[in-house]
Specification:
Helices cover about 45% and strands about 20% of the residues. With about 120 residues, the protein is α/β, with parallel strands linked by helices. The two termini are about 15 Å apart.
């Protein structure tokens, strides 16, 4: 049985390292991207089942990446969770408008992330 793939897209190396560690420990295969353009390239190369996507990133922001992926028939089924330090109502609305599936505000606990990934991917 193949492992479920999770793409972690964030320009904060500590957050990426932390999420990679806890998800690998739980048996999930992970890949990472530091910016929006790299995230889209990684999705095309090896489609993930789930994607954590930071909003504020260089090259393409999370809203743009999410909209582009959700507009594509090949990638619209990827479950996208937006991660952001911006927790304002306006940011939540914009995340939903870009067709993200969920919105989690930083900081968050690794246990919360693992629980959500288990619920989504099994």
């Amino acid at each position: 049985m193949s492992r479920k793939r999770v793409l972690i897209t964030d320009n904060d190396p500590n957050l990426v390292k932390s999420l990679t560690f806890v998800l690998n420990k739980e048996g999930y295969e992970t890949d990472t991207a530091e910016n929006g353009e790299e995230a889209i390239a990684k999705v095309r190369q090896s489609k993930p089942s789930l994607m954590f996507l930071d909003i504020m990133m260089p090259k393409k922001n999370g809203y743009e990446v999410c909209q582009e992926l959700k507009s594509s028939p090949d990638f619209s089924d990827i479950y996208i969770i937006m991660l952001t330090a911006k927790g304002q109502e306006e940011d939540r609305v914009k995340a939903l408008e870009s067709k993200s599936d969920e919105f989690i505000t930083k900081p968050f606990s690794p246990a919360e992330i693992v629980r959500r990934v288990h619920q989504i991917l099994g």
